[in-house]
Every structure is written in structure tokens, then in C-alpha cells.
Amino acid sequence: MPGPKYKRVLLKISGEGLCSSGGSGIDGEELQRLAEEIKLVVGLGVELALVVGGGNIVRGHTIAAETSIEETTGHYMGMLATVINAIAVQDTLESKGVPTRVQSAIAIDRVCEPFIRRKAIHHLEKGRVVIFAAGTGNPFVTTDSGGALRASEIRADVLLKATKVDGVYTADPMKDANAERIAHLSFDEVINRRLGVMDVAAVDLCQRGRIPIVVFNLRKAGNMRAVVMGEDVGTIIDQSGK
Ligand code: UDP
To answer: Positive or negative CA dihedral for 97, 122, 201, 56?
Structure first.
């Protein structure tokens, strides 16, 4: 039996991965589904770290545009939202027997550990899933950048970007029936064609660290495991693009 393609994985899930389609907040069934997918991957002996978004609760830019809340405050609210999501994912995983630690970029010491890189790596080596909360800890960026940053810091072999579709397409698959999945792209193509897979800053950071990105559909059971096993699932973005 071939082993997994990647030994250390950074999974980026958006807040919308935790709520029902088109909804907001946190949905128990989606949490269960996510935890099952993660458990399958952990069962392969893979070290898994997670960066969770907060868009299911609040996005800084949006709340500032709709209220009199200052944009910077909105971004801090967004980061705190990711902490709420992180501890929700933590309890769900632990209810399934998967050991975890949450580390936050903003100190909330009653709730979780602070982000300490060497400690995070130690947890991974011990087989614990490490959930990184509060993004980068800085306003005006997103958890995509947080994902790329943490992937670089822990020297992940790959960044898995979970989405609602099967990868990067030639057009929007939700709107165009002729849209085709692109199996392989280079970092340069993603950046130059502004394909909107992730923030350009996040893609750039992965390129500099030579960390491939795989964009895949989180809503298909067993898909994350298939990606980690190196199956032809989703879109792989790397240096060569071939
Ligand atoms: N955020 C931030 N700094 C970070 C990460 C996130 O200010 O390093 C804020 C930002 O306002 C963002 C919100 O937190 O809109 C939620 O994160 P994100 O939009 O990345 O969540 P996702 O879309 O992945 O659910």
C-alpha cells in the first residue's frame, strides 16, 4: 500500500465550511462532517494543522461598510470570530477521539494557548491536530495569509485550501456549464491571471516557500484523504504548473 504523499499538512478552511450552504454561524452537521474528514487524514499518520477563517460570523471589511464600526475594529472582530470557530472544531474533533490544541495569534489564555511556533511543531510531532486561530494577529489581512504564514512557519509539505467546488475552473462552475476543472497550475499563472484562488499575498508566500497549494472540495466525503494520498483530485498549484 502506498503511503500518503504529504507528511505535514496545513489545511485552510473558511468559516463558510462550518455553516450550511448560504447560511451563517455554526452548523453542527457541518462540524461533524469536517471532523470526520480530518479524522480520516489523521488516521493516515499525517501531521495536520488547521487555519480556520471567520467569515461565517464576521468579516472586518463588511461589518465596517455596513455599520459605524471602524474597519480596524472589524478586523479584530473577525479574528475573534476565528477563535470561536477554532474551539468549536476542537471540541468536535476531540469528541471523535482526535487530540487537538488551539493556538491563537491573539492571547486569550483562558481559552487556548498562544501561538508558539516550536510548541506547535512539538504538538504535531506528538500526533495532535493544531488549530491556529486569530489569523496572523494583524488587521487588514485574511486567514488565507494566516494559512500561508503558518504553513511556512511549520514547514508544511502542502497547503490544502478547502472550497465548495472541485478545484480551479476555466470559468465559474456555478454559472457556466462548460467550465472545466484545471488539474495543474503554476504559482505565476494563479498570480498573473488573478484567478482568485487565495489572496495574492498568500500565493506569493507559498511560492517563496515552495509549498504547493491544493484546492479541493471539502463537501465530498473522503476527498481530503484522497488529496493527501496524491490522487488526481482538485487543482494543484506549484512551481512548474505541469
Ligand atoms: N482577519 C484579520 N487578520 C487576519 C485574519 C483575519 O484581520 O490575519 C479578519 C478579517 O477582517 C477577515 C476576518 O478576520 O475578514 C475573517 O477572516 P476571513 O475573511 O479570512 O475568513 P474566511 O473567509 O476564511 O471565513
So the answer is: positive
